[in-house]
Amino acid sequence: MTHLDEFISGLDFALDDFQIAGCKAVEADHGVLVCAPTGAGKTIVGEFAVSVALSRGTKCFYTTPIKALSNQKYHDLVAVHGEEAVGLLTGDVSINSNAEVVVMTTEVLRNMIYAGSHTLDRLTHVVMDEIHFLGDRDRGAVWEEIILNLDESVNVIGLSATVSNSEQFGDWLSAVRGDTEVIVTDHRPVPLDQWMMVGRKIYPLFEPGSDVVNDELERRIERIESTDTSGEDYRQGRGFRARSDNGGDKYRPLGRPEVVQVLEGRNMLPAIFFIFSRAGCDGALAQCHRSRKVLTTQEEGEEIKRIIDEGVEGIPEEDLEVLRFRQWRSALSRGFAAHHAGMLPAFRHIVEELFVKGLVRVVFATETLALGINMPARSVVLEKLVKFNGEAHVDLTPGQYTQLTGRAGRRGIDVMGNAVVQWAPAMDPRAVAGLASTRMYPLLSTFEPGYNMAVNLLNMNGFEASLRLLEKSFAQYQTDGSVVDDVRQMERVEDRIAQLRSQLPPEDAEEVMEYARLRRELSDEERESRRHSVEQRSMETSAVLSKLQVGEVIAVAGRKKPILAVVVTPANQTRDPRPWVTTESGWSGRIDASGFQNPPIVVGRMRLPRNVTHHPRKNTKFVVDSFRRQRFDRPKKMKTTPRARDSKKVVALRRQLRDHPVHAWPAREREEMARIGEKFTRAERDLARLQKKVTPSDTLGKHFERIINLLTEMDYVEISSGEPEVTDEGERLAKIHNVSDLLVAQCLKRGIWDELDPAELAGVASLCAFEARKTTGGEPTAPTDPMVDAMNATERLWTQLAADEKRHRLPVSKEPEAQFALAMHQWTAGAPLGYCLAAAAESGAELTAGDFVRSVLQVIDLLEQVAKTGYTDEIRRNARRAVDSARRGVVAIGT
């Protein structure tokens, strides 16, 4: 009996063909890349690699991209192999690190490789779960560093979501690591039904057995859009809706408690509602809490409270009060929860545990929940297919839609999973069907060497070998691998250009092409002018919405006449303001800038009782009656399309076009030649784009050389016998794994942090570890003079470094951010959570409890590196003291 036979005999379920194929490849000592949908069971191949290593007396490392997934996988493997055989390393947690099987975050393994750790001895297998994280913009390089630097004797087992270029990725793995088998399946063990919810009714998105949109669904939406004449005004999210003569809504978006009730009636719970903002998740939870709806039995409610109380044991009562713990505990005991990165880690872990146990039935989550954590549900609900990315509202990609809906369907529990999209005005079911039909997305490398990587590669491999290694990266492979196709395309475009030129009259060819280029330039500039105008209009609209106060009556453009609405709740933020309004027709809900072509106009005020502002949907009748009684100066007409003025460049180009000789030709001849000319200029553009791609690019090797040149100037590298070598200072830089690694190394080298006490050191170190997500109007401050001096010196050092980087044509290091310094100092000095959150807000950073804990942990991580790399005993000792002082309360529990 083979080891695979023994492994299968110990399972209580049958393996799918792709799982057996993956396990056979592992047993035959091949590298493996398994690409399968979320929930398909690809981790069984990684678990078999663990079993193989243990049976042979060798080691297996199981890497994951996030700590939560590492913790989960650690407990899974302990349940099978026992505590003695399995360890856990996540940066801030170390359990049985010398075990034969160690679960770890990917960065931990990268650091081990560079340090030449003896823990790597006898390592034969590395499982890289969620290996498609290699395409992550911020952290993807770590995956390539590991793949490129692991000893060639180690077999890599990559587990990935289904990507469209899996063969290309597999070919690269084979090129750099040897024989790698690629196993791809798009089979879901729990099939996924696609639905669209319109009002209280849920329709299948597709006709049975086809990819054609359900005809009944389209007819229903057409009826709504044809009868609700005011629906054109607010196109994104939820639109303004007219009321029928009998007082009933023709279409009204349901509140979350009503949606939950509909899903409950169709046996579609438990469900995850994906909402693309933390505030939206918290608001949805509060809405369900206010509704008094209960999804649990009394016994389940008591069990939930017991688990919660155990999970928060050790958090001070005053901190729990700041976190509104009682309300949160009450909502969970009734079966509702929120889950997002802004929550306290201990709270998130409690939600995950309760959901897995089946005690929580509804979770309102941001998209971070879709990344790896094993929390499948029977249904996934998407309220919108648009998300705010920090700069603008953008449509979900097919890859994002697949990742989110992949959480629907629990293997071994459900026979079907449900993906439910809530219909909103202007949402096209055909576009939704396009998202639902696309199962794959490409994996693109983001690999680029940095300072820490450069000195580690140089130290481990030498200069020439490091260059060769970088040229073997997936990033370079993707660039070079496409050159042949680009050259072939160039040849076709050149033939097309020659053909088009032959169609022009020889004596007028240059003039016609010049005229066509002028028309193209005008068209581009008009498009840019319109885009700029839309952006300006959106900014104006946001400014208007952010300033609206309770009771102000606004007029917005309607299809036939302007519509009036009263502000019930003002916006709670300025970047993406979303005030709550109730219209004269009785629609009530939040509006945002994406729904307006032109800004609304304030036309008066209305007195609103407190019960209306607190419960707007329940009191729409009061508002409707008030609009009938009061008269407001409604504009006779408002433009439904954006007003746009031509830029000076557009005006100038139009004048040049009119004055051009070709413009005076007979219209028919001119347009015929101009069409050929336009095709010619378009082909010219295509050729220029392809030439730029095919021309030898600024390779990773050249980028590496420029880094080495800068580090040589700064004495982190020296030239010995014509070869670059790492100096003692470079050895310290090699141990600093931080986005601002070189700046930190410079601060330590210059001694500008040496005279700080532990709390001051923690505060100043935060400049290089903190990244503000939301800002307030506050200004960064520091409580002591030594801290002020060190912060100013750090800023000056960054300015010098940025100038050097620009001179060497390198990306500029992240600018220090001081908004967290005061809060970090106070926390390390022993202040309570509420005090520190207020200190952050005073300094310009708006933080949730989860943001605060994550930021403190990032500073702790940097301080631990300072404790190893500082130049004096005093700074190393103070760094250790700062770590001990900061790791307490909410930071120590649940992380």
From TrEMBL:
Positions of the Helicase ATP-binding domain: 23-181
InterPro entries: DEAD/DEAH_box_helicase_dom (IPR011545), Helicase_ATP-bd (IPR014001), Helicase_C-like (IPR001650), P-loop_NTPase (IPR027417), RNA-DNA_Helicase (IPR050699), SH3_HelY (IPR058621), Ski2/MTR4_C (IPR012961)
Coiled-coil residues: 483-535
Annotated ranges, domain Helicase C-terminal: 255-471
Domain of life: Bacteria
Keyword Transcription listed: no
GO molecular function, one term: hydrolase activity
PROSITE patterns the UniProt entry points to: HELICASE_ATP_BIND_1, HELICASE_CTER
A cellular-component GO term for this protein: Ski complex
Short name of any one Pfam family annotated for the protein: DEAD
Keyword Nucleotide-binding: yes
GO biological process: nuclear-transcribed mRNA catabolic process, 3'-5' exonucleolytic nonsense-mediated decay
Protein name listed in UniProt: Helicase
Organism of derivation: Corynebacterium maris DSM 45190
Phylogenetic lineage: Bacteria, Bacillati, Actinomycetota, Actinomycetes, Mycobacteriales
